[in-house]
User: Which sequence fits this backbone?
């Protein structure tokens, strides 16, 4: 007889791969993700609007950073997750990966929209222009179109949700090439946009008083993404598996 | 306090930015809640129809 080797991580992977377990496990997290989001946003807003000093060059417009930068980071972070899920969905046909991919698209599109809109509102007073067709802005706009394209692809094939999800995954994977372009755009081309200021590996070129609120807001947006994505993925699984027994059990018990 | 709202003369740009951020988040949040209601209602009526057709 073959010896069964059980590894906690492997078990978790298999569990999360099955829609009913994913639905049940993610259900425990929702409330906490939302609570942490609210707390971090509260602290971040107070810190960013009241405590953070004004920039000697940019004045109070520097506070726009606290919504602009977290949103821009999330726009890329979420897309990277979608690209990975896209690969898993195409190679292993894992349904939960399809759910996470499609559930990430709306919130990712919102963050991209916020990054573009607040960038515009920051650019007008600082650079004297709402919009410039330069590499950073153009590639971020393409990212927004990618998000919209992924959602549109899924809708276009809606008669077969599995096929639709795989087509959307394909668009997501192809669009991954845009991520390094966005990141390095300020280096590769001469850009109106400033270069990288905050760095995980290297030293950040920003004082702690200005950085601290940014970190609060960056984590707040990460937790909100967790909430929004998990909740949407759960609804996606309920919808696409509505014929299955576990959905009937969940609905008849009427547990959230 | 009015100094705070004035944002060093950049009130429009700063507050619009925060406005865009929170409006977008609230649309996502409340849109998700109403979607949850719709999906659960749909599945409930689907189950009811199934049950009724089995009884007939």
Assistant:
């Amino acid at each position: 007889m073959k010896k069964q080797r059980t590894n906690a991580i492997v078990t978790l992977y298999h569990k999360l791969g099955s829609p009913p377990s994913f639905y049940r496990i993610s259900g425990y997290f929702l409330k906490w993700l939302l609570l942490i989001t609210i707390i971090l946003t509260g602290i971040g807003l107070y810190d960013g609007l009241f405590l953070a000093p004004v920039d000697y060059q940019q004045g109070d417009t520097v506070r726009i950073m606290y919504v602009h930068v977290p949103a821009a980071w999330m726009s890329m972070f979420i897309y990277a997750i979608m690209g990975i899920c896209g690969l898993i969905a195409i190679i292993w046909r894992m349904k939960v990966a399809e759910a996470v991919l499609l559930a990430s698209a709306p919130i990712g599109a919102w963050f991209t929209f916020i990054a573009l809109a607040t960038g515009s509102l920051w650019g007008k007073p600082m650079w004297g222009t709402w919009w410039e067709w330069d590499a950073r802005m153009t590639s971020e706009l393409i990212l927004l179109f990618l998000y919209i394209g992924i959602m549109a692809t899924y809708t276009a094939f809606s008669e077969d949700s599995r096929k639709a999800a795989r087509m959307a995954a394909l668009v997501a994977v192809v669009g991954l090439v845009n991520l390094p372009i966005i990141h390095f755009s300020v280096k590769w081309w001469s850009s109106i946009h400033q270069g990288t200021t905050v760095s995980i590996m290297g030293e950040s070129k920003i004082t702690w008083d200005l950085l601290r609120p940014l970190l609060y807001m960056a984590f707040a947006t990460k937790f909100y993404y967790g909430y929004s994505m998990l909740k949407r993925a759960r609804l996606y699984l309920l919808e696409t598996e509505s014929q299955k027994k576990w959905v009937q059990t969940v609905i008849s018990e009427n547990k959230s | 306090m009015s100094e705070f709202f004035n944002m060093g003369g950049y009130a429009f740009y700063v507050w619009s930015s925060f406005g865009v951020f929170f409006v977008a988040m609230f649309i996502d949040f409340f849109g998700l809640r109403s979607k949850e209601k719709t999906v659960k209602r749909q599945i409930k009526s689907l189950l009811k129809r199934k049950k009724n057709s089995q009884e007939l």
